[in-house]
Design goal:
- With 518 residues, the chain is α+β, with helices and mostly antiparallel strands.
- The chain has two domains: 2-22 and 319-517, no CATH class; 24-284, Golgi alpha-mannosidase II, domain 4 (Beta-galactosidase, Chain A, domain 5).
- Helices cover 37% and strands 25% of the residues.
- It has a nine-stranded antiparallel sheet with strand order 8-9-10-11-20-17-16-13-14, with no helix packed on it. A six-stranded antiparallel sheet has the order 7-6-12-19-18-15, with no helix packed on it.
- A hairpin with a 5-residue loop joins strand 4 (73-77) and strand 5 (83-88).
- It is elongated.
- The protein starts with a helix and ends with a helix.
Amino acid sequence: MIRNRLPQLLVALLAALTLTAPAHAGIQLAAQPFQLADFRAAEKVDATCSGAAPSFFCDPGEAKLTRITSKGVDYFFDGAGQLVAAFGKQQRGQKLNDYALDARTNLIPFDATIPGLALLVNGDYVAPEVVASDWQADADGALVGTFEQRVGALEVRRRLTLRAGVDTIGVELTVTRAEAADEPTVLQLAVPGIGRTATPVVKIGHGDSFTLNPSEQAFKDPTYASLQMNNNNRDFAIVMRPAPGSEGLSATYLRPNRVALQAELGAAAGASFTFATGLYPGHNELVRYSQEEYLGLPGLFNPNILGRLSLIVVRILEFVHQYVPSWGLSIIVLTLLFRAVIWPLISTQTKSMFGMQRLQPKLQELQRKYKDDREKLTQETMALYREAGVNPAGGCLPILVQMPLFIILWRVFVNFEFNEGFLWLPDLGQSDPFYILPILYVGVMVATSYFSARGNPQMLRQSLIINVVFVFIIINFPAGVLVYYVVSMLVQVIQYWLLSRGQPPAPALAAAGAKRSK
């Protein structure tokens, strides 16, 4: 009864999702107080404070911080709006409960002498005197930090803008001279390095070109300046991208591992200059760069063939979303398109699987009959395959063909930022807080196991155990990934059911086993 009604139930469930799928805003950002002592390995800061190059954390003003948690990065700012730590996440939506200052995922080196977004004056860093600081949400839902400070005779106003679903920090830093000076001042907005990487890959873009690992020289009108953990399109990167139309700006590499945007401040009282740039501390990854609109930067990222195919999938997903009201439904539509493409492959694989299931008792009989003659067993087995019209390798090629497609879709859904809820889900980029999707996943995998292990109770038990174990792996996956998984497997169950109609029941291997024991 259940078998006969299963596809109708699954189709009804999918239709209900389609007709009752409201989109709603994703999770918003919030500023939370944090203490230096709350970091793990915070005691390592003390070891640097007595040395010749003490950590910027040694300044007493760095004890009280602000934490802002996003789906891609957890940021930590001091009272001057300087970035003192940035923990990149291996998986978007991951919840970090342990912040170790010396972790490789902390993109701001804790033992550096300057923090991220530090203002250098004539090459020197002086901890700013904070006058005022505040974090507020604006009318568009962005989190905006405003900071007023003094650095010697300079008045500094800093404005930071963070938006949910975007890992790039909007930075505006205005420096005004309070008193006249004898000569102009060189200003540099710098980042101190990247993580624990001793020799990061340094790139500075200019015009339609870029310079790899440049010497200490200034490049006028830069398009970006970046530090990457490696040049292999993985791990993490920090990218500074000046706002379009920035004038009087250059970019430079500073030893040992710094990059900075540079400008000259006039000597007259009241002279002013504003740095306007984006700062991206996050994954060195194609989908993220695409959504952050960094792919056009020359030399920043050179995708491989899977990356280029992933980009095609991203473009298709964005195209679907132009006509579908929510990202959740867009995922479902894209998944259905993908299943339509591989439908013939799955059909071939499934028919081969059913054929092999029917032959299992005969294959076991041949194994008992020719257990001492391997050559004869091989000959008789191949003859049995020919007689039954079954290709034992028929299920292999479809799997090999579809695996790259699965990998591409996985990469897209894991790294794509939806910043939108769907049905009961507060945000497709976060894990399901009610664990409904993992439960649905178990349900569709049980149905899949039922068809793939027909007549083989032992195989069914093994498959169920594997799926139960896998639930603990996927339970914290972003909801968008699980929506894809559940819908994809629903379609596969329906396909299994359609192909199983008219098939004779699979022989019970338990009966064969009983015959063997006599």
